[in-house]
Amino acid sequence: MAKDPKKQAIAPQFPSEAVSKDALQRLADARAQKNEAEKDLQEAYFFTRPRLCWDVKSTTSTKRNRDRESEQEDLATGIGSEVSEDFATEVISAFFPQGTNWVESTLDESAVVDLEPTDVADLKNEAKERDGKIFSAIRASNFEAELGDALDPDASVGTVGFWIDKPHNTRPISVQHVPVRELEINVECDGSIGDRFRVRHVRASKLRSVIGNVPLPEKVTRKIASSPMTKLEVVWCFWRDWSDPENDKWKHVLLVDKTAVHQSMLDGEGCLPLIVARFSPDKEFSWGYGPAIKSLQEFRVLDVITAATQDRVDVAIAPPITYPDDGVLDFEGGIEAGKAYPARPGSGRDIAKLYFEGDPDLGFYTATDLERRIRRKFFADYPEQKGDTPPTATQWVDEMVMAQRRIGTPGKKFWREGPYEIYRRFEWLLKKDGKIQDVSLDGQSIPLIPNNPATQAADNQKLQTGVQVLGIAKSYFPETSAAAIDERATIENIQKLAKDDVVVLRNQQQTSDLLQTVLGAAQDAGVVPTGGPQ
User: Which residues lie within the region annotated Disordered (predicted)?
Assistant: First the structure.
C-alpha cells in the first residue's frame, strides 16, 4: 500500500556550503586573535590557577597528560590565587551586589517631557515593578551560584564568558560559565565584541545531550554510528547582520564536525545567549587586559625572589657540611642543603659547616613590596595600619573610597558588556515567554534606559561629604540646625546612598503622631514647658 505523501517526513533543509565556509573563516579569524594573546593568557593562569594554564586554545580537547609535579615545583609564590579571589569578590561587590538590583531602568526623559507628573510617576512605578520581575528571574536561576566560578580567575585574566538560555519551558533560566578554552571572539571596527563562538569537543555518543534534536546530515550520523567514542567539534557561531544596521540582528549558525547543520536569525537587544565581558580592552585586540596580565612583571620577579629566599632558608636550616677525604672541594655544580662534601684533611676540624651566608631579609622586604604592588593592581589593597597610630575613621573611609573609585575606570566597559547585557538577556527571555511587557502609555511604548546603580565609590563620596556637612551644622549651629534640617528626608538619603534595607522608617503620619504623643507626655510631666504664660 502506497504511503500518503502528505504524511511522509519532510527532509530537513541544511544550510548551504557557503554558510559553513563563512562560519569557519570567521572562526579562524577569531582564533588568530587568541593566538596573539595566548602567551599572556597561559602565564596569567599559571600564577592564578596553574591547572588551567595548559589549555587556552579551542582547537583540541582537554589535555590529560599533564606533569603535575613539575607544575607545582615551577611555581614558588601563591599570592596569585589569593588576589584573584579578592578581585572576584570586589567585582561582585561593585557590579553584582547581592540582594540589590544592580541594573535600574529609568525613563527616557525626552519621551516623557510632555506628560503629566502623575503619568510619569505611574510609569516609574511600572518600570520599577518590571525590574523586580527581571531580578526575581535572575535570583530564581543559578546565576549567583555560577557567578563565583566565572569570575575567579577569569575576571583577573580580563575576559569572562556566560551562556544564558532557557532550554526547557518548565524550568528556570540556566546560566553557564564559558571557560576561555571554549571561547573565541573578534572585535568590530569600533572595538566592541562582534563575532563570538563557543567551541566544545563532544564525544559522539553524547552529542544529543549537547545539541538536542537538531537534524544532522547523513555523513555526520554515519560517523556517529561507526565511531561512537570519537570526539566531534561543536561550534555555536554568532555574528552581526549588518544588512539592517538600524536593528540589532544577529546570525546564528551551529557547526558540527565543521559542517553547518542549523542557522537562524536572532533579533533584539539581549537575543544572544553567549555574553562576553572584558576588563580594560584594547580596540585592536579582542581579549581583555585584566589585573593578572597587568601584574605579570611583578609575578615573575616575585616568583624568582620567593624561590631564591626559600632556597637560602633551606640552606640555613640544613647547611651542607664537609668531611675529611682525599678529594678536593669543587663548587662548580653548586651546593645543596643537607649534603656532605669531601674536603682535603688539615682544615682543623673533621666535620665543618659549609654555608656562605646571604641576606634573606632583603628577599623578604623585596617580596613584601612586590606583593603590595600586586594587590594594588588587583584592587585588593585594603586600608592598612602602617604605623603605631591607628588611622582615624575619616582617613579609613577616604582610603576605601579611593580604592573603590579606581575600579570604576576599567569597570565601565565591563559593566556595559557584563551586567548590562546579562540584564538585557533575562529581559529578552522573559518578554519571549510573555512574562513581562514593554512600559507603555496609551498604546505607545516608552523607552527605558538601564543605568548602573552600583556606583559605590561615588555614593560613598557623597555620603562622606553629607556626614561632614551634617556634623559641621550640628557643631556650629546646635540651636537652629534641628529646625533647619529635615531629619527624615536626610535619613532617607543616607539610606539610599548606603544601600541600606535593614533600618525601617515610620511613615510621615506615624512619625508625627508619635512625636505629638512624646511631646504631650513630656509636657504633662513638666519636662517641656507648655505654650501658656509663665
Answer: 59-80
| pLDDT tens sequence across 374-414 | 998 998 876 665 655 666 655 555 665 666 667 777 778 89
What grid cell was written down for 476? Answer: 556650629
Q: How confident is the model at residue 150 (pLDDT cuts 50, 70, 90)?
A: very high
Contact 519, 117 (CB under 8 A): no
| Lowest model confidence (mean pLDDT) among 175-184, 213-222, 249-258 | 213-222
Mean pLDDT of 236-258: 93
Beta 193-203 vs 231-240: how paired, if at all? Answer: antiparallel
In angstroms, rounded to a whole number, what is the distance separating the alpha carbons of residues 75 and 484?
Answer: 63
Domain ranges of the chain: 13-294, 320-354, 455-524
**Nearest CA-CA partner of 45 in 53, 36, 34, 37:** 53
> What pLDDT, on the 0 to 100 scale, is given for residue 534?
44
Closest CA to 103 of 418, 404, 403: 418
CB 273 within 8 A of CB 163: yes
**Single pTM value for the model:** 0.79
DSSP state of 533: -
**Omega before 447 within 30 of 0, i.e. cis:** no
Cα→Cα distances 56→31, 43, 458, Å: 11, 11, 37
Q: Do you know the residue count of the chain?
A: 534
Residue 522 confidence (pLDDT) = 65
The percent of residues in the chain predicted with pLDDT above 90, rounded, is 40
CA angle 256, 257, 259 (to 5 degrees): 65
Rounded distance between C-alpha atoms, residue 241 and residue 188, angstroms: 12
The contacts found for 416-421 with CB under 8 angstroms, 24 or more apart, are: 417/193, 417/275, 417/276, 417/277, 417/278, 418/95, 418/160, 418/275, 418/277, 419/95, 419/96, 419/102, 419/103, 419/452, 419/454, 420/103, 420/450, 420/452, 421/270, 421/272, 421/275, 421/277
Average pLDDT, the chain: 82
| Helix H or strand E segment including 194 | strand 193-203
CA 207 to chain centre: 30
Please give the grid coordinates belonging to residue 431. 518578554
> Maximum CA pair distance of the chain?
117
103 contacts: CB under 8 Å, gap ≥ 6: 131, 419, 420, 423, 450, 451, 452, 453
pLDDT at residue 531, as a whole number: 54
